[in-house]
Amino acid sequence: MAELNTGDGGGGKKGSKKVRSKKQNSKVDLTAMVDLAFLLITFFMLTTTLSKPQSMNLGLPDKDPNKDNNKDVKVDENRTMTILLGDNNKLVRYVGLLATPVAGGAPKDFAYGKDGIRGELLSRKEKVLQYTGNKDKGMIVIIKPSKKSNYRNLVDILDEMAIVNVPTYAIVNEFTPEETKLLGESGGAAATPAATPANP
Amino acid sequence: MAIKMKKKSTSTDMTAMCDVAFLLLTFFILTATAKVPEVMPVDTPASTVQTKLPEKDLATLTVGNGKVFFDVKGKDVRIRTLELMGDKYGVKFSEEDQNKFAIMESFGVPVQSLKQILDMKPSDRKNVQQPGIPKDSLDNQLAEWVQNARIANIELHDKELELAIKGDAKEEYPIIRKVMDILQDQKINNFSLVTGLRGNEQ
After folding, report:
1. CB B130 within 8 A of CB B69
2. Is A14 exposed, middle or buried (0-12, 13-18, 19+ CB in 10 A)?
3. A-chain residues near B71 (CB < 8 A)
4. pLDDT over threshold 60, residue A8
5. Alpha helices by DSSP H, A29-71
6. Contact B191 A58 (CB under 8 A)
7. Shortest alpha-carbon distance between residue B1 and chain A (Å)
8. Which residues in A lie closer than 8 A to residue B198 (C-beta atoms)?
9. Considering only CA atoms, which of B145, B162, B183, B134 is closest in space to residue B59?
10. Which of the four pLDDT bands, split at 50, 70 and 90, describes residue A188?
Protein backbone atom coordinates (compact mmCIF):
# COMPACT_ATOMS: atom_id res chain seq x y z
CA MET A 1 0.00 0.00 0.00
CA ALA A 2 1.09 3.49 -0.65
CA GLU A 3 2.41 5.27 2.29
CA LEU A 4 1.94 8.87 3.03
CA ASN A 5 5.10 10.60 4.08
CA THR A 6 4.28 12.84 6.91
CA GLY A 7 6.55 15.40 8.41
CA ASP A 8 7.53 13.16 11.23
CA GLY A 9 9.13 10.73 8.93
CA GLY A 10 8.71 7.33 10.28
CA GLY A 11 12.00 5.73 9.38
CA GLY A 12 14.53 8.27 10.63
CA LYS A 13 16.34 8.15 13.87
CA LYS A 14 14.28 9.75 16.48
CA GLY A 15 15.65 12.99 17.86
CA SER A 16 18.49 13.28 15.37
CA LYS A 17 16.76 16.08 13.43
CA LYS A 18 14.82 18.90 14.97
CA VAL A 19 11.43 19.47 13.48
CA ARG A 20 11.73 22.87 11.87
CA SER A 21 9.01 24.84 10.32
CA LYS A 22 10.04 26.10 6.92
CA LYS A 23 11.55 29.57 7.17
CA GLN A 24 9.02 32.00 5.86
CA ASN A 25 10.47 34.43 3.34
CA SER A 26 9.56 37.96 4.38
CA LYS A 27 10.09 39.33 0.87
CA VAL A 28 7.17 39.50 -1.48
CA ASP A 29 7.85 39.29 -5.15
CA LEU A 30 7.02 42.76 -6.45
CA THR A 31 7.80 42.14 -10.10
CA ALA A 32 4.23 41.76 -11.20
CA MET A 33 3.16 44.81 -9.24
CA VAL A 34 5.88 46.95 -10.79
CA ASP A 35 4.92 45.68 -14.22
CA LEU A 36 1.37 46.72 -13.67
CA ALA A 37 2.35 50.10 -12.26
CA PHE A 38 4.53 50.91 -15.24
CA LEU A 39 1.88 49.81 -17.64
CA LEU A 40 -0.58 52.19 -16.05
CA ILE A 41 1.99 55.00 -16.00
CA THR A 42 2.58 54.56 -19.70
CA PHE A 43 -1.14 54.65 -20.33
CA PHE A 44 -1.72 57.83 -18.35
CA MET A 45 1.32 59.56 -19.77
CA LEU A 46 0.27 58.90 -23.32
CA THR A 47 -3.34 59.81 -22.83
CA THR A 48 -2.54 63.12 -21.14
CA THR A 49 -0.05 64.29 -23.73
CA LEU A 50 -1.59 62.86 -26.86
CA SER A 51 -5.12 64.06 -26.23
CA LYS A 52 -4.10 67.68 -26.64
CA PRO A 53 -5.44 68.81 -29.96
CA GLN A 54 -3.10 69.91 -32.69
CA SER A 55 -3.40 73.37 -34.04
CA MET A 56 -2.22 75.36 -36.97
CA ASN A 57 -1.35 78.98 -36.57
CA LEU A 58 -2.78 81.43 -39.04
CA GLY A 59 -1.79 85.06 -39.21
CA LEU A 60 -3.88 87.52 -41.13
CA PRO A 61 -3.04 91.14 -41.85
CA ASP A 62 -4.74 94.10 -40.27
CA LYS A 63 -8.04 94.91 -41.78
CA ASP A 64 -8.78 98.55 -42.10
CA PRO A 65 -12.48 99.37 -42.15
CA ASN A 66 -11.69 102.27 -44.39
CA LYS A 67 -11.25 100.68 -47.78
CA ASP A 68 -9.18 103.51 -49.20
CA ASN A 69 -6.42 102.80 -46.73
CA ASN A 70 -5.97 99.29 -48.04
CA LYS A 71 -3.23 99.82 -50.55
CA ASP A 72 -2.75 97.38 -53.34
CA VAL A 73 0.63 95.81 -53.28
CA LYS A 74 2.14 95.24 -56.65
CA VAL A 75 4.12 92.07 -57.07
CA ASP A 76 5.95 90.50 -59.95
CA GLU A 77 3.53 88.17 -61.70
CA ASN A 78 6.33 85.74 -62.39
CA ARG A 79 6.49 84.98 -58.70
CA THR A 80 2.84 84.37 -58.05
CA MET A 81 0.87 81.20 -58.22
CA THR A 82 -2.85 81.40 -57.73
CA ILE A 83 -4.71 78.43 -56.34
CA LEU A 84 -8.47 78.34 -56.71
CA LEU A 85 -10.42 76.02 -54.44
CA GLY A 86 -13.74 74.84 -55.74
CA ASP A 87 -16.45 72.44 -54.69
CA ASN A 88 -15.99 68.67 -54.65
CA ASN A 89 -12.30 69.06 -53.80
CA LYS A 90 -11.60 70.75 -57.11
CA LEU A 91 -8.35 72.66 -57.25
CA VAL A 92 -7.15 74.79 -60.13
CA ARG A 93 -3.87 76.61 -60.24
CA TYR A 94 -2.31 79.05 -62.63
CA VAL A 95 0.97 80.90 -62.56
CA GLY A 96 1.25 84.56 -63.31
CA LEU A 97 -1.72 86.43 -64.68
CA LEU A 98 -4.74 84.50 -65.82
CA ALA A 99 -4.84 86.20 -69.21
CA THR A 100 -1.12 85.84 -69.84
CA PRO A 101 0.17 82.93 -67.79
CA VAL A 102 3.85 82.20 -67.48
CA ALA A 103 5.20 79.34 -69.63
CA GLY A 104 3.77 76.09 -68.32
CA GLY A 105 1.50 77.95 -65.97
CA ALA A 106 -1.78 77.78 -67.78
CA PRO A 107 -4.80 76.91 -65.59
CA LYS A 108 -4.74 73.26 -64.74
CA ASP A 109 -6.56 70.96 -62.36
CA PHE A 110 -4.63 69.35 -59.55
CA ALA A 111 -5.39 66.95 -56.78
CA TYR A 112 -4.70 67.63 -53.14
CA GLY A 113 -1.81 66.01 -51.39
CA LYS A 114 1.53 64.53 -52.17
CA ASP A 115 0.95 63.39 -55.73
CA GLY A 116 -0.93 66.48 -56.77
CA ILE A 117 -0.25 70.06 -55.93
CA ARG A 118 2.81 69.44 -53.76
CA GLY A 119 5.09 68.47 -56.62
CA GLU A 120 3.94 71.43 -58.61
CA LEU A 121 4.53 73.78 -55.69
CA LEU A 122 8.04 72.42 -55.15
CA SER A 123 9.09 72.68 -58.79
CA ARG A 124 7.57 76.12 -59.14
CA LYS A 125 9.31 77.29 -56.00
CA GLU A 126 12.65 76.29 -57.50
CA LYS A 127 11.87 78.05 -60.75
CA VAL A 128 10.94 81.25 -58.97
CA LEU A 129 14.17 81.20 -57.02
CA GLN A 130 16.12 80.73 -60.23
CA TYR A 131 14.20 83.56 -61.82
CA THR A 132 14.73 86.07 -59.04
CA GLY A 133 18.12 84.80 -57.92
CA ASN A 134 17.33 86.26 -54.53
CA LYS A 135 16.56 84.13 -51.52
CA ASP A 136 14.32 86.77 -50.01
CA LYS A 137 12.15 86.94 -53.08
CA GLY A 138 10.50 83.57 -53.12
CA MET A 139 7.26 82.34 -54.49
CA ILE A 140 4.01 84.04 -53.57
CA VAL A 141 0.96 81.83 -53.41
CA ILE A 142 -2.49 83.33 -53.54
CA ILE A 143 -5.17 81.04 -52.17
CA LYS A 144 -8.68 81.75 -53.30
CA PRO A 145 -11.27 79.60 -51.61
CA SER A 146 -14.61 79.82 -53.36
CA LYS A 147 -17.91 79.81 -51.54
CA LYS A 148 -18.44 76.17 -52.36
CA SER A 149 -15.14 75.03 -50.99
CA ASN A 150 -15.07 73.57 -47.53
CA TYR A 151 -12.92 73.98 -44.49
CA ARG A 152 -10.98 70.79 -45.12
CA ASN A 153 -9.79 72.17 -48.46
CA LEU A 154 -8.55 75.33 -46.80
CA VAL A 155 -6.71 73.46 -44.06
CA ASP A 156 -5.26 71.03 -46.59
CA ILE A 157 -3.86 73.77 -48.74
CA LEU A 158 -2.50 75.67 -45.74
CA ASP A 159 -0.89 72.43 -44.69
CA GLU A 160 0.75 72.13 -48.11
CA MET A 161 2.10 75.64 -47.63
CA ALA A 162 3.67 74.52 -44.37
CA ILE A 163 5.09 71.34 -45.89
CA VAL A 164 6.52 72.99 -48.99
CA ASN A 165 7.62 75.97 -46.89
CA VAL A 166 6.24 78.66 -49.12
CA PRO A 167 7.62 81.95 -47.85
CA THR A 168 4.59 84.11 -48.59
CA TYR A 169 1.01 83.15 -49.04
CA ALA A 170 -2.29 84.94 -48.83
CA ILE A 171 -5.92 84.07 -48.59
CA VAL A 172 -7.89 86.23 -50.96
CA ASN A 173 -11.64 86.21 -51.21
CA GLU A 174 -12.04 88.16 -54.42
CA PHE A 175 -13.00 86.27 -57.52
CA THR A 176 -12.93 87.61 -61.03
CA PRO A 177 -15.62 86.28 -63.38
CA GLU A 178 -12.97 84.42 -65.38
CA GLU A 179 -11.78 82.63 -62.29
CA THR A 180 -15.30 81.67 -61.38
CA LYS A 181 -15.67 80.19 -64.83
CA LEU A 182 -12.51 78.19 -64.33
CA LEU A 183 -14.03 76.47 -61.37
CA GLY A 184 -17.18 75.82 -63.36
CA GLU A 185 -19.39 77.50 -60.83
CA SER A 186 -22.26 79.67 -61.80
CA GLY A 187 -22.20 82.97 -59.99
CA GLY A 188 -20.94 81.29 -56.87
CA ALA A 189 -18.63 83.98 -55.72
CA ALA A 190 -19.27 87.64 -55.59
CA ALA A 191 -16.41 90.06 -55.26
CA THR A 192 -15.73 90.79 -51.64
CA PRO A 193 -13.02 92.79 -49.95
CA ALA A 194 -10.58 91.59 -47.36
CA ALA A 195 -7.45 90.68 -49.15
CA THR A 196 -5.41 88.87 -46.59
CA PRO A 197 -1.72 88.33 -47.14
CA ALA A 198 -0.19 86.20 -44.45
CA ASN A 199 3.46 86.00 -43.79
CA PRO A 200 4.19 83.43 -41.13
CA MET B 1 42.77 27.13 -1.29
CA ALA B 2 39.64 27.27 -3.24
CA ILE B 3 38.01 30.65 -3.33
CA LYS B 4 34.36 30.42 -2.77
CA MET B 5 32.32 32.81 -4.82
CA LYS B 6 29.51 34.37 -2.96
CA LYS B 7 26.33 33.10 -4.45
CA LYS B 8 24.45 35.97 -5.99
CA SER B 9 20.77 36.16 -5.62
CA THR B 10 18.94 36.50 -8.91
CA SER B 11 15.99 38.39 -7.52
CA THR B 12 16.47 42.12 -7.09
CA ASP B 13 14.80 44.23 -4.52
CA MET B 14 11.83 45.78 -6.23
CA THR B 15 10.55 47.83 -3.33
CA ALA B 16 12.11 51.13 -4.31
CA MET B 17 11.17 50.69 -7.93
CA CYS B 18 7.64 49.90 -6.95
CA ASP B 19 7.50 53.03 -4.79
CA VAL B 20 8.67 55.25 -7.62
CA ALA B 21 6.32 53.64 -10.09
CA PHE B 22 3.31 54.19 -7.90
CA LEU B 23 4.33 57.73 -7.08
CA LEU B 24 4.45 58.55 -10.77
CA LEU B 25 1.22 56.71 -11.35
CA THR B 26 -0.52 58.75 -8.69
CA PHE B 27 0.84 61.93 -10.20
CA PHE B 28 -0.39 61.11 -13.68
CA ILE B 29 -3.79 60.01 -12.49
CA LEU B 30 -4.26 63.21 -10.53
CA THR B 31 -3.07 65.50 -13.31
CA ALA B 32 -5.16 63.76 -15.95
CA THR B 33 -8.32 65.70 -16.52
CA ALA B 34 -11.52 63.94 -17.23
CA LYS B 35 -12.65 64.37 -20.79
CA VAL B 36 -15.56 66.72 -21.03
CA PRO B 37 -18.25 65.41 -23.33
CA GLU B 38 -18.58 67.55 -26.39
CA VAL B 39 -21.90 69.17 -27.00
CA MET B 40 -21.25 69.40 -30.68
CA PRO B 41 -18.81 66.80 -31.93
CA VAL B 42 -16.91 67.99 -34.96
CA ASP B 43 -14.63 66.15 -37.30
CA THR B 44 -11.54 68.31 -37.50
CA PRO B 45 -9.49 68.17 -40.69
CA ALA B 46 -6.07 66.59 -40.52
CA SER B 47 -2.79 68.39 -40.90
CA THR B 48 0.87 67.61 -40.50
CA VAL B 49 1.57 70.65 -38.37
CA GLN B 50 2.35 69.59 -34.84
CA THR B 51 1.81 72.63 -32.70
CA LYS B 52 -0.13 71.96 -29.54
CA LEU B 53 -2.85 74.23 -28.32
CA PRO B 54 -2.17 76.10 -25.09
CA GLU B 55 -3.81 74.77 -21.93
CA LYS B 56 -5.09 78.06 -20.63
CA ASP B 57 -5.84 81.57 -21.81
CA LEU B 58 -7.64 80.03 -24.73
CA ALA B 59 -11.08 80.46 -26.21
CA THR B 60 -12.35 77.95 -28.72
CA LEU B 61 -14.97 78.65 -31.33
CA THR B 62 -16.43 75.40 -32.53
CA VAL B 63 -18.02 75.65 -35.95
CA GLY B 64 -20.25 72.94 -37.32
CA ASN B 65 -23.52 72.72 -39.24
CA GLY B 66 -23.49 76.47 -39.63
CA LYS B 67 -23.64 76.92 -35.87
CA VAL B 68 -21.00 78.41 -33.64
CA PHE B 69 -20.33 77.25 -30.09
CA PHE B 70 -18.18 79.11 -27.63
CA ASP B 71 -15.87 77.84 -24.95
CA VAL B 72 -13.22 79.52 -22.84
CA LYS B 73 -10.73 77.89 -20.50
CA GLY B 74 -10.36 78.76 -16.84
CA LYS B 75 -13.09 78.91 -14.21
CA ASP B 76 -12.33 82.43 -13.06
CA VAL B 77 -12.30 83.75 -16.61
CA ARG B 78 -15.59 82.05 -17.36
CA ILE B 79 -17.32 83.55 -14.33
CA ARG B 80 -16.06 87.03 -15.11
CA THR B 81 -17.07 86.67 -18.77
CA LEU B 82 -20.55 85.63 -17.75
CA GLU B 83 -20.84 88.63 -15.43
CA LEU B 84 -19.81 91.00 -18.20
CA MET B 85 -22.23 89.38 -20.64
CA GLY B 86 -25.04 89.52 -18.06
CA ASP B 87 -24.44 93.23 -17.55
CA LYS B 88 -24.35 93.86 -21.26
CA TYR B 89 -27.61 92.08 -22.08
CA GLY B 90 -29.39 92.74 -18.79
CA VAL B 91 -29.63 89.10 -17.79
CA LYS B 92 -29.14 88.28 -14.13
CA PHE B 93 -27.12 85.19 -13.24
CA SER B 94 -27.11 83.98 -9.66
CA GLU B 95 -23.98 82.68 -7.98
CA GLU B 96 -25.21 79.14 -8.50
CA ASP B 97 -25.60 79.81 -12.21
CA GLN B 98 -22.10 81.19 -12.35
CA ASN B 99 -20.66 78.13 -10.70
CA LYS B 100 -22.53 75.89 -13.08
CA PHE B 101 -21.29 77.93 -16.00
CA ALA B 102 -17.72 77.67 -14.73
CA ILE B 103 -17.68 73.91 -15.06
CA MET B 104 -19.84 73.69 -18.14
CA GLU B 105 -18.63 72.56 -21.52
CA SER B 106 -19.03 74.70 -24.62
CA PHE B 107 -22.46 76.09 -25.36
CA GLY B 108 -24.33 77.46 -28.31
CA VAL B 109 -27.36 79.42 -27.21
CA PRO B 110 -28.22 83.09 -27.15
CA VAL B 111 -27.41 84.67 -23.79
CA GLN B 112 -31.13 85.15 -23.13
CA SER B 113 -31.75 81.41 -23.01
CA LEU B 114 -28.47 80.47 -21.40
CA LYS B 115 -30.20 80.16 -18.01
CA GLN B 116 -32.36 77.29 -19.26
CA ILE B 117 -29.28 75.40 -20.32
CA LEU B 118 -27.62 76.09 -16.98
CA ASP B 119 -30.63 74.74 -15.10
CA MET B 120 -30.44 71.43 -16.91
CA LYS B 121 -28.55 68.45 -15.68
CA PRO B 122 -25.16 68.17 -17.38
CA SER B 123 -26.15 64.85 -18.89
CA ASP B 124 -29.28 66.33 -20.46
CA ARG B 125 -27.52 69.28 -22.05
CA LYS B 126 -26.25 67.45 -25.04
CA ASN B 127 -29.66 66.02 -25.81
CA VAL B 128 -31.17 69.39 -26.56
CA GLN B 129 -30.64 71.08 -29.87
CA GLN B 130 -28.67 74.23 -29.27
CA PRO B 131 -29.21 76.79 -32.00
CA GLY B 132 -25.71 78.27 -31.94
CA ILE B 133 -24.64 81.70 -30.81
CA PRO B 134 -26.18 84.49 -32.90
CA LYS B 135 -23.53 86.00 -35.13
CA ASP B 136 -25.31 88.16 -37.67
CA SER B 137 -24.77 91.87 -37.76
CA LEU B 138 -28.04 92.71 -35.95
CA ASP B 139 -27.36 90.58 -32.92
CA ASN B 140 -23.70 89.77 -32.88
CA GLN B 141 -23.44 88.00 -29.55
CA LEU B 142 -20.47 85.95 -30.68
CA ALA B 143 -18.38 89.09 -31.03
CA GLU B 144 -19.52 90.17 -27.55
CA TRP B 145 -18.56 86.84 -26.03
CA VAL B 146 -15.12 87.02 -27.58
CA GLN B 147 -14.69 90.62 -26.55
CA ASN B 148 -15.78 90.04 -22.96
CA ALA B 149 -13.71 86.90 -22.60
CA ARG B 150 -10.68 88.87 -23.71
CA ILE B 151 -11.45 91.62 -21.20
CA ALA B 152 -11.92 89.04 -18.44
CA ASN B 153 -8.70 87.28 -19.31
CA ILE B 154 -6.70 90.51 -19.27
CA GLU B 155 -8.25 91.50 -15.93
CA LEU B 156 -7.57 88.19 -14.25
CA HIS B 157 -4.48 86.81 -15.92
CA ASP B 158 -2.98 89.94 -17.42
CA LYS B 159 -2.51 88.10 -20.68
CA GLU B 160 -4.03 88.33 -24.12
CA LEU B 161 -6.57 85.58 -24.77
CA GLU B 162 -5.72 83.26 -27.61
CA LEU B 163 -8.39 82.24 -30.05
CA ALA B 164 -8.78 78.93 -31.80
CA ILE B 165 -11.27 77.94 -34.46
CA LYS B 166 -12.33 74.33 -34.40
CA GLY B 167 -14.18 73.76 -37.60
CA ASP B 168 -15.82 70.72 -39.04
CA ALA B 169 -14.02 69.47 -42.13
CA LYS B 170 -17.17 69.58 -44.21
CA GLU B 171 -18.09 73.06 -43.13
CA GLU B 172 -18.40 75.44 -46.03
CA TYR B 173 -15.85 78.19 -46.30
CA PRO B 174 -18.20 81.22 -46.05
CA ILE B 175 -19.13 80.35 -42.46
CA ILE B 176 -15.51 79.94 -41.46
CA ARG B 177 -14.79 83.26 -43.10
CA LYS B 178 -17.65 84.87 -41.23
CA VAL B 179 -16.11 83.75 -37.94
CA MET B 180 -12.67 84.91 -39.04
CA ASP B 181 -14.17 88.27 -40.00
CA ILE B 182 -15.72 88.64 -36.55
CA LEU B 183 -12.32 88.03 -35.02
CA GLN B 184 -10.63 90.38 -37.45
CA ASP B 185 -13.11 93.12 -36.65
CA GLN B 186 -11.66 93.03 -33.15
CA LYS B 187 -8.14 93.18 -34.54
CA ILE B 188 -7.44 89.56 -33.73
CA ASN B 189 -5.29 88.73 -36.69
CA ASN B 190 -3.52 85.76 -35.26
CA PHE B 191 -5.36 82.66 -34.25
CA SER B 192 -5.14 78.91 -34.43
CA LEU B 193 -7.04 76.39 -36.46
CA VAL B 194 -7.60 73.18 -34.54
CA THR B 195 -6.65 70.17 -36.62
CA GLY B 196 -6.28 66.48 -36.11
CA LEU B 197 -3.07 64.64 -36.66
CA ARG B 198 -2.63 63.18 -40.09
CA GLY B 199 -1.95 59.54 -39.48
CA ASN B 200 0.01 58.58 -42.55
CA GLU B 201 1.08 60.45 -45.59
CA GLN B 202 -1.38 60.17 -48.36
Report:
1. yes
2. exposed
3. none
4. no
5. 31-50
6. yes
7. 32
8. 159
9. B162
10. very low
CATH number at residue A166: 3.30.420.270
Please state the domain count of chain B: 1
The domain in which residue A81 lies consists of 75-198
Label the pairing between strands A80-85 and A91-95.
antiparallel
- Say how many domains are in chain A: 1
Residue A88: strand pairing partners: none
Task: Tell me the C-alpha distance between B141 and B80, whole Å.
Answer: 16
Residue A68 burial (CB < 10 Å; 0-12/13-18/19+)? exposed
Does any CB of chain B come closer than 8 Å to the CB of residue A66? no
* Residue B136 burial (CB count, 10 A): 9
Q: Between B31, B48, B51, which is nearest A159 by CB? A: B48
A3 falls within a domain: no
Query: Distance from B98 to chain A by nearest Cα, in Å?
Result: 27
Q: What is the mean pLDDT of residues B65-89?
A: 87
ipTM for the predicted complex = 0.73
- A134-138: long-range contacts, CB 8 A cutoff, minimum separation 24: A137/A76, A137/A79, A138/A79, A138/A166, A138/A167, A138/A168
> CA of B14: which chain A residue's CA is closest?
A30
- Nearest residue on chain B to A86, judged by CA atoms? B173
Q: Please tell me the pTM assigned to this model.
A: 0.71
